[in-house]
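Narrative summary of target 7.
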Amino acid sequence: MSYDPTALDAAARALADAAPEADQTGQFPWAGINAVHQAGLLESTVATRYDGSGGTLADAAHILSALGRGDPSVALISAMTIFNHLGQATKNHWPEDLYRRLLGEAKQRPLLLNAARVEPELGSPARGGLPATRARRTAKGWSITGRKRFVTGAHGLTHFLVWAHTDETPARVGTFVVANGLPGIRIIENWKSLGMRATGSHDVEYTDVEIPAENVLDLVDPSVAQQDNRAHAAINLALTALYLGAAEAAQETFIRFAHERVPANLGHPIARTERFVTLSGEIDLLVSGARQLIFGALERNTGDAEPLIRARLLAGRQIREAVEIAVRGIGNPGLNADLGLERHFRDVQSVLVHAPQEDTSISILGRAAFNRSERSQNAPSPDYPAAISILKTA
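Modeled conformation, tokenized:
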């Protein structure tokens, strides 16, 4: 285990205390992020070769589910940094000096990294295509120009990881590490989502932003730069854990309400009525089932994408349905902001919005099923007479 469970629980409680105001204002959730930073969770997956804890993807999923119970917006912002450290631990693709310098900065303040990939014209890279954002060679490094959408945590990030093509001949595609606050960066505050409001996933415009020559990762030929949705299946499943946390928070709210609500005509808590016992059972079936799906698939991960994609889709659907049952079961109080259940309902609507989205994931499974069937049909038939002859002589 790469984290202190006591510190994780304390951070989750701090997030829960700050979440209502962060949701209401939509401002960057510094209180929550600082709690995560102080608990050492942002660096939980830094490799041991950098004197880190060496946390695994399963560790990250457990952290995110706990943070999601407090505030899934903070959990999502944190996840981007946690996954980036995990990527360096496994791929070692960052320039060594740059990465070590950033780890040094993380001791003084929250180091927040996130990819800036989606573009207004291109849409999500998960659906194919290459970025219009350009990286132009300069005497001292690179100059970045372009516009990105849905940049989670835009205002609070320390560094944007900007996906762009170079102006070279032939052009290459890579990820450019752009420090926040540089001249030419403009955050366009257009995040007006139903839920996950505190993520501040605004557009960001880069106009001739100068960065050092070494601030680039994975600079490759465009032919090999397409997003591999299958390769990221495990991380996408781990990300779903933060919405599981939100659903578990909704379940706790439902149970607490059922125990505290005592109608005058009933004379005892509605938790003792058969209707609410049944509702509680339905919610538990879906929420606990989603937890089993997520962590079971991560524990059994053998590198095959399909089981991970199935687990993500099924868990995501169950998470949404569970919170909907809780809101519908409670009725009007469930829609009141004071109870907090409606915030969880709004937040979990985003569970399957992250790339690859639901339809893309379903298509991956559909093609895989067709391919399995085709391989089965084309496989040579067993030689039954020969097999029988072998058995008779054995």
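The mean pLDDT is 94.
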